[in-house]
Amino acid sequence: xxxxxxxxxxxxxxxxxxxxxxxxxxxxxxxxxxxxxxxxxxxxxxxxxxxxxxxxxxxxxxxxxxxxxxxxxxxxxxxxxxxxxxxxxxxxxxxxxxxxxxxxxxxxxxxxxxxxxxxxxxxxxxxxxxxxxxxxxxxxxxxxxxxxxxxxxxxxxxxxxxxxxxxxxxxxxxxxxxxxxxxxxxxxxxxxxxxxxxxxxxxxxxxxxxxxxxxxxxx
Length: 219
Description:
CATH 3.30.1330.30, 37% helix, elongated
């Protein structure tokens, strides 16, 4: 049966919606009203999310799609869910050649990781984070409720932390790149756990971690 013209497909079920399974382990969307934080609709799924949790593209003067990881490029943005399947669908819709598409996907994965690590570096430079389990324990004892960043290759520590943190309200763990890449922000030695105490930078890192995790976990 032919679809009636002028009607858009219904949104896909959204596994990352606030009331369902989160995109990043132990992280959910900010509990803000839509008028307090901008939301956008995914061009592929038609689902809505906070803008910071989507990927943005713009069309360059030559008519080609360009990724905009920072969200600062001029022009009307096209937003899409931060996973390879939906991004690939968007690029295919805009008739991007397979070779160019593969290069863009590889570049986008690197850019998302770098954006996330840059946010952690910003937190460090502004004195807005601490590293190490001992520092985390001291912060929580003092009543501070940081955003915890756990290296993706430290799952054994996650298993130890989560039962303890279940008894403490207001503390989240999000996954970030491995110990070596996280440690590159400090002296170059591996870093497993970071506590972000700066709320503004923490929210940026939280959104960037969600995008990086979703994109890199899709084949």
